[in-house]
User: Which sequence fits this backbone?
């Protein structure tokens, strides 16, 4: 029934967790809260995701050689906002990794500029891992899939719900 605490206790109390989905049958990959690759910093948040579905380089999520910079901004941004996003990212050296939500506006521009300046980027999706939202970001989605990391708490092509967007 969606009770996080009960689900968590069930997961950690089982020695062998049966696979509900045969993840190997899908093009995306998955790590769980019990996997060694699952980031410690996510385990420390209130109600961390049980699974992270992804495409791309999962090592980016744990690699401490990078300084992570989260860039989140207006979806209906101004040209000044886009210009400043570009300026900030261009001014960073390659030790920075850009994290954003791949929404339209500033998020899109942050990923686009990171890719254009050969910086690594992680897109945290509010939709299922195979649902490109908004559709105009398909080009960037594909580039991040190849040379960055796309990550979601939701598998398949499930559209986003309003409560999945953090305000």
Assistant:
């Amino acid at each position: 029934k969606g009770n996080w605490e009960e689900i968590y206790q069930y997961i950690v109390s089982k020695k062998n967790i049966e696979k509900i989905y045969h993840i190997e049958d899908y093009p995306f990959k998955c790590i769980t809260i019990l996997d060694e690759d699952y980031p410690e910093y996510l385990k420390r948040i209130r109600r961390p995701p049980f699974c992270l579905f992804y495409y791309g380089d999962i090592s980016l999520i744990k690699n401490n050689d990078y300084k992570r910079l989260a860039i989140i901004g207006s979806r209906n941004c101004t040209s000044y906002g886009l210009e400043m996003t570009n300026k900030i990212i261009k001014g960073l050296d390659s030790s920075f990794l850009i994290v954003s939500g791949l929404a339209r506006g500033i998020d899109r521009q942050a990923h686009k500029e990171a890719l254009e300046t050969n910086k690594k980027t992680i897109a945290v999706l509010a939709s299922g891992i195979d649902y490109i939202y908004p559709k105009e970001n398909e080009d960037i989605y594909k580039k991040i899939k190849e040379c960055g990391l796309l990550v979601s708490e939701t598998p398949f092509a499930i559209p986003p719900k309003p409560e999945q967007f953090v305000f």
